[in-house]
Amino acid sequence: MRPAKDFFRPLAVGAPAPVTEIPARPSRAIHFFDPSNAKMAAKVPQMVGTVDVLLGNLEDAVKADNKEAAREGLVRIAKEVDFGPTQLWTRINALDSPWVLDDLTTLVSEIGDKLDVIMVPKVQGAEDIHYVDRLLAQLEARAGLQRPILVHAILETARGVANVEEICGASPRMQGLSLGPADLAADRRMKTTRVGGGHPGYLVRADANPDQPEAHRDVFQQDLWHYTISRMVDACAMHGIYPYYGPFGDIADTTACEDQFRNAFLLGCVGTWTLHPKQIEIANRVFAPSAEEIAHARRVVAAMGDGTGAVMLDGKMEDDASLKQCLVMVELAEQLAAIDPALKAQYDAVTIED
Ligand code: GLV
Ligand code: MG
Question: Which end of the chain is more exposed for a tag (fewer CB within 10 A), N or C?
Fold first, then answer.
């Protein structure tokens, strides 16, 4: 066991000091691109500023023959493009793959100063994070980096879910977790064949009317991911890091995509992956409080004065605890307004009206 006093010590001589807090940088959409795909790569410069995070994907969805081209493509893009306010992340190959060692050594050595976060797939337990943590420290020291690269784990194995708390707390680099519904479904031997989203077979049905047993009975589709997202949110909140929804593969079904994203937002997630530009607009809208919610939250904050006691607003009781919820919303709105002028204008407008 690493003693508490050593937790924030660098894991290699000359490596940058670990951060003691993960900065709350807006990351409503983590937009995936394949750096080996010339068409996608060419669009990266014009996407800067339109999305909170651009992620060069090296893992699944990149063909084995293209793994090296993807890695080289990402190095080239990171060197050529000015990412300005947009974060640059990557998803490396799995730790048991033949590509991951070169992914890490090349990326940290060549573009370590440009990379904000490395997403590690198929994390099983704290030992996977410890491996990456030490290796990153060695590579950062060799590259003379001034700030540590953060690590994000994908929750996409049954063992990973069982170990979710220890994964979150395994390193000061841990920035967050994403749900990986496709791999997780396979690993759990769920009987689905989709990438994220619900399933029409997973439902509850209203009781039959004994007098009319043949009459229509309402059915309600349930959310396959509720349990995992809730566990992920609790583990992340406990460790001061950030939870995200993952991929939603049915690109054409923007309605169901929005529903999944909103469920995740309401449960505590800060963002999601986007696989197609049209999902970015949905994510940016869903993972930001609406102007009406902010107007209400600000009214509660103002009415609660020193933050203790209870007040009645529009017939509803507000107290210390509802104030805390409102402060979560107001704080998020402030962070988003700082990087999104259109959203800032919406939030400012409701202040004036109020
Ligand atoms: C993402 O990587 C997933 O497996 O859903
Ligand atoms: Mg996966």
Answer: N
